[in-house]
Amino acid sequence: MDKKTKKGNTLIHILTPFILLFLCVGILMIVLIKPSDKLKVYVNLAFMDDLKNTPEAAGSGLVLRDNDIVEDYSGETFDEGEVIRPKFGEMYAVMKCSAFDISLPVYWGSSSELFEHGACQSSGSVIIGETGNTVISAHEDTFFSELYKLKKGDTVTLNTTYGEFRYKVTENISFNKNDGKYVTPSKEAKLTLYTCKRNVLGSADERIGVICEPTEKKFYKKAGEAMTN
Q1: Which residues form the active site (predicted)?
Q2: Distance CA 85, CA 128 (A)
């Protein structure tokens, strides 16, 4: 080994501990200074699925839009009608379940901020009332804390600005967060509800939920006469 090589190796050995120390201090400072950013990253990783749609402005300047959802509509209804496509961040439905007492707001789109306000519907899934897979999720320690109580035969009702839609639970499911089997688009009309599987060790890799089939549609307006907000 020549003198230059030996000198270079010695320099590397001397600098390596200082480089590692600098990196460790930098990481520690980031964790201490920006805990909220760290939390957001954890939330996104712990509760992510490939279908979630976050707008370009999500997390900064997100505007929530609430609607007055009619839960006891007494007017004439129709078997067929038109849906009203919501905007990102809009609460366009209220969910009720026969197995437990809830009146849960459902927002269109998914982001860590939206999950703080209610359940979120993946914008990669079909609008409530359309044919296909409607996918809705929420955190297991808040809005979907009792989702595990749903069993076959239980009913789920979704009231929207344009109609009321009822479903019956047909299957309880459990899957890994990387398995898109239950949350991908489908030609079959169904409602998929899911959340993280509760784990005291903090692992959020597993999901639990239910598959529901539609049993009744009640549109408030005929096709071509959709209600406006």
Answers
A1: 139 (proton donor/acceptor), 196 (acyl-thioester intermediate)
A2: 9
Q: How many CB atoms lie within 10 A of CB 169?
A: 22
Are 172 and 112 in contact by the 8 Å Cβ rule? The answer is no
24 is catalytic: no
Of 181, 141, 154, give the one whose Cα is nearest residue 99.
154
pLDDT reading at 31 higher than 80: no
Active-site residue 139, yes or no?
Answer: yes
Q: Please name which of 167, 172, 174 lies closest in space to residue 216, comparing C-alpha atoms.
A: 167
- The domain locations on the chain are 3-33, 51-219
Q: Which two tokens stand for residue 57?
A: 């402005």
Among residues 97, 120, 196, 212, the one annotated as catalytic is 196
What percent of the chain is helix, strand and coil (3-state, nearest 5)? 20, 30, 50
CATH 2.30.180.10 holds for 51-219: no
pLDDT tens digits along 196-218 = 988 766 567 899 999 999 999 99
